[in-house]
Amino acid sequence: MKQGKLTKAKLVWHLKHEYWKYICAILIVVIGCHMTVLLTRPRVPDEQQLNVYYAGPSEAYDQVIMFGEEIKSAFPQLQEVNVNVILYSGANDFRGHQQGGIYLGAGMGDVYIVHQDFFNSFASSSQQDFWKPLNDAIDSGQIALPEGMDLDKGHVGANAVLEMGLSLDEATEQQKAGKEPDETTLSPGIPAFEEDTVRGIPLDSLTGLKAAAGIDPADMVVVIPYFAEKDEMVYEFISYLFENYR
User: Fold this and answer.
1) How far apart are CA 208 and CA 246, in angstroms?
2) What pLDDT does residue 34 have?
3) Which of 21-35, 65-79, 120-134 has the highest mean pLDDT?
4) pLDDT on residue 236
5) Does domain 47-157+196-244 have CATH number 1.10.10.10?
6) 220 within 8 A of 115, measured Cβ to Cβ
7) What's residue 157's pLDDT?
8) Confidence class of residue 1 from pLDDT cuts 50, 70 and 90?
9) If we measure between CA atoms, which residue out of 196, 199, 79, 72 comes closest to residue 131?
10) 42-50: which pairs have CB atoms within 8 A and are 24 or more residues apart?
11) Which of 16, 86, 111, 240 suits 230 as a labelling partner, its CA being 20 to 30 A distant?
12) In the predicted structure, residue 161 carries a pLDDT above the cut 60
């Protein structure tokens, strides 16, 4: 069949009425390429990646994200350092608090750099504590801190449940038994504690974080969530921060 001559008018008409086909084709190609990359990219072993969560104010969102590359260069054993941002402005920031609670509840993250109010809100309640105690790691030197550093902002008092008279051994046994939590029991899987402990390390002195990552260290604390399983790696990370950003 003889084709008519292509004219400007025909081309305009075609593009006007058939443009959606081209858009669909482009989207299919883009999505297909993206899925191919996701499915074929080798998965980084868990022990070779570090997931950092930052919960605080940030005027340099992209800079905070890119901070992971700087950290990665200092730890050759890591293939990936992922920095995830939770925008959190203070005690009245319900959305930021809720987002952080979702991540913590889902067991996400190896180490958290958080605002003091965020730390306090998750540090102690009548039935649970989200941050691991750091006393032993600090005392043994696994976390290398400046001599005589003030850790008051990172202290957490005795769990209110234990103050009701339940001993640490009793609380642990009830956790193992999986009993439903009430006023005298602890939620299964949540670590119990009975003494005043250090569960966060204040970052006030790390003024270099402002230039390196866009993080204002004032009222910021670094913590390890109770579910994390890379303590030694995180100890190195915290020590690195104090060695390089003071």
Assistant:
1) 6
2) 66
3) 65-79
4) 96
5) no
6) yes
7) 65
8) very low
9) 199
10) 44/79, 44/80, 45/79, 47/230, 48/77, 48/78, 48/79, 48/80, 49/78, 49/79, 49/80, 49/81, 49/82, 50/75, 50/78, 50/80, 50/81, 50/82, 50/110, 50/111, 50/230, 50/233, 50/234, 50/237
11) 86
12) no
The values of phi and psi at residue 42, to 5°, are -60, 135
Greater confidence (76 vs 43) lies with 76
For residue 162 the two structure tokens come to: 């234990």
